[in-house]
Amino acid sequence: MTIRNRLTWLFVGVVAFILLGVLTTAFLLQADYSRRDFRQRLRERAVVAAYIYLEKDELRSSAFQAFQKQFQRTLTEEIIQLYDTKGEVRFVREDARLEVPPDVLARIKEGHEEYFEDGTREAVGIFYRDNQGQYVVVAGAENIRGEARLQYLATILATIFVLSLLLIYAAGRLFAGRALAPIAALNDQMDRISAHDLHRRVAENLSGREQDELSRLAHTFNRLLDRLESSFDGQRAFVRNASHELRTPLAASIGEAQLALAREREPAAYRAALHALLTDLTQLNALLNHLLDLAQAETPLPEHDTRIRVDELLAEACAAIDPAQRPRLHLHTGRLPAEPEQLELTGNRALLSRALINLLENALKYSEPQPVAVDLEYEPGGVLVRIRDQGIGIAEGDLPQVFQPFFRAGNARPVTGHGVGLPLARKIIEQHGGELKLTSQLGHGTTVLVRLPTA
């Protein structure tokens, strides 16, 4: 069932329930009023009958005629009976008799006013005192006119209920259609967006209001498209750049091999060709290792990771640097906690070591022969690692793109590299809940700040 139909039937059901309750209450109130009115009329008939029968000898002729005229306006199938204290019938109007239960008659004699039913008739019994004695007066009749009025009222209310439901259904369909029209328009716009035109966006004010649920849904969907477009662009750039980076050493290796095999050469020429081939394959191997590390950094961390001391991890990263470059690293420790456990964090030791090594190698590579300062400092809840070099720096326009895989700034192209180390380091650090910030000034060096949360 569509949302429009569900909303329509829900609307009809709620209103029908309320309307049924209101109409039923009105009918029951009218039925109760009709019943009480008929009983009051029965009582009045009983009082008038007793007054006329018992007070006839004491009334003036004109007064008696007035009461008699009122008494003659009888109810439908009316029966009036008058009992003395012995329970004997002293007067009966109409030939039929009312069957008064003995217990009801006994309560009437005690002075109670009793209402009871005798077949289709409703009856009332009252206790009447007169100078001639004490009597019980019983009046009964059929409330045919009242029942007819109630049936007529029930027919009217049922007709109103059915017509109201039809009107409510039509109104519900109309309002549900109008309410869902922006959703249908949003669905049509979303359906026209494919992987080839992720630049398209849906309108965020289809309902004419900027802060309602549909506007927020459209805004959320547009933000999802922004992320998807960015991811797709990143993947396309990754594939394009990876293809280029892989093609270069492969083409060079194939060219070296073809050149060496083109004719007979001296052993020294073969050794030179093999050395050049080894260099190209080494670069290719390094690139493939970076790609594997980058893919591994995209996967979630396992639930049970090891506890790592950041100071020990940084020392291991420095020890993994090429011995020829290691003297250029100047490691400094600032404020450190009294308890070594406060420098511990939970994570993947190999990945974090790879991230720090990449950052250190980048700083050394782009600042040769200048020294690189490495500072370790503790702050409540985290550890700061600051790596500062005095190298070529990065232009301000290139800073937003340095974390894109395979991107290389214009002044960094003469230096051997693939543009994977910095994006890989950032992914690893962010995966561990940390943060990597980079500031640089062209020609004056670069500062990398790594903030890692401790366990």
Automatic annotation (TrEMBL):
<feature type="transmembrane region" description="Helical">
    <location>
        <begin position="152"/>
        <end position="172"/>
    </location>
</feature>
<keyword id="KW-1133">Transmembrane helix</keyword>
<dbReference type="InterPro" id="IPR003661">
    <property type="entry name" value="HisK_dim/P_dom"/>
</dbReference>
<keyword id="KW-0597">Phosphoprotein</keyword>
<keyword id="KW-0472">Membrane</keyword>
<dbReference type="GO" id="GO:0016301">
    <property type="term" value="F:kinase activity"/>
</dbReference>
<feature type="transmembrane region" description="Helical">
    <location>
        <begin position="6"/>
        <end position="29"/>
    </location>
</feature>
<dbReference type="InterPro" id="IPR005467">
    <property type="entry name" value="His_kinase_dom"/>
</dbReference>
<feature type="domain" description="HAMP">
    <location>
        <begin position="177"/>
        <end position="233"/>
    </location>
</feature>
<dbReference type="Pfam" id="PF00672">
    <property type="entry name" value="HAMP"/>
</dbReference>
<keyword id="KW-0808">Transferase</keyword>
<protein>
    <recommendedName>
        <fullName>histidine kinase</fullName>
        <ecNumber>2.7.13.3</ecNumber>
    </recommendedName>
</protein>
<dbReference type="InterPro" id="IPR036890">
    <property type="entry name" value="HATPase_C_sf"/>
</dbReference>
<dbReference type="InterPro" id="IPR004358">
    <property type="entry name" value="Sig_transdc_His_kin-like_C"/>
</dbReference>
<feature type="domain" description="Histidine kinase">
    <location>
        <begin position="241"/>
        <end position="455"/>
    </location>
</feature>
<keyword id="KW-0812">Transmembrane</keyword>
<dbReference type="Pfam" id="PF00512">
    <property type="entry name" value="HisKA"/>
</dbReference>
<dbReference type="InterPro" id="IPR036097">
    <property type="entry name" value="HisK_dim/P_sf"/>
</dbReference>
<dbReference type="InterPro" id="IPR003594">
    <property type="entry name" value="HATPase_dom"/>
</dbReference>
<dbReference type="Pfam" id="PF02518">
    <property type="entry name" value="HATPase_c"/>
</dbReference>
<keyword id="KW-0902">Two-component regulatory system</keyword>
<dbReference type="InterPro" id="IPR050428">
    <property type="entry name" value="TCS_sensor_his_kinase"/>
</dbReference>
<keyword id="KW-0418">Kinase</keyword>
<dbReference type="InterPro" id="IPR003660">
    <property type="entry name" value="HAMP_dom"/>
</dbReference>
